[in-house]
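Lecture notes, unit on protein representations.

Consider one protein chain, 295 amino acids long.
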Amino acid sequence: MMMVNSNARAEADPILLAQAETDALLGRVREQIDLDTFNANDAETLRLLVESLGDTRGMTRLRCAETLAEIGEVATPFLLDALANHVNPVVRRAAAKTLTLIADPTAVPHLIHALLNDEDTVVKGSSIGALARIGEPSVQALLDILGSTDLPESTIGHAAWALAFIGAGAKEYLYRAIASDSPVVRGAVVGAIAKVAQEEPQDELFEILVKSLTDVDVDVRCEAAAALGNLAYKPAIPNLIELLEHGDGETRRAAALSLMKVGDRAAIEPLQAALAKESEAAIQGVIKLAISQIK
């Protein structure tokens, strides 16, 4: 029987050949970086590194991303080209994830475009991750998305998450955006301010949250109540007690839950009074739970 040489099989396998070339490329670039001889103007090598983000081996893709991140912002244009134009979604995903590592502010409009237009949900998620990591330079674009009336809820949710992730880096924008005409923007701002207040408990931040308890939009009111409860902010107790008599049931429910989380016994009597007046069975149950938890 004729035996086929295993080396011949390997040489004939285009996947193994491509993997060997990628390994050699990474080894060569790694050596150049270590010796401080890497040529940042070597466009062909940068292009090949970005193309290698499509390697079928996950650890190899990670090595490519880390290598490009170490090279830094000179790799950004090549990654942006791949993010916008590469036919392989694996490469587009990896390009966005690598841009997260580099955090180059010039990538913001391109990442926004990918978030809004790429058909691949992982590319969208990776793009929002990069925007969050870039931080303050992304904030205005994220606020613009939140203020849009024709984008899917998933995109709005991504933008709200990124804004909260940025947190203190977005603080100056948040102070202005809390006055937005868009309730979606105000709600996202309340969520972001709550995160900032957790990291940097400042009076002006709590004042915004307390003021938001009287917002005309129910979702904003409930977001503010939840935030103050999570922060266990006792000075808000009188404002939350006042909400127990609000005409909107969801607002009353949010106020009761917030008082429960704050956990101050001063709220028991007002909660008992609210329970006696409450007509909705579901909210009665929440108020009873709040009273029992505080006790």
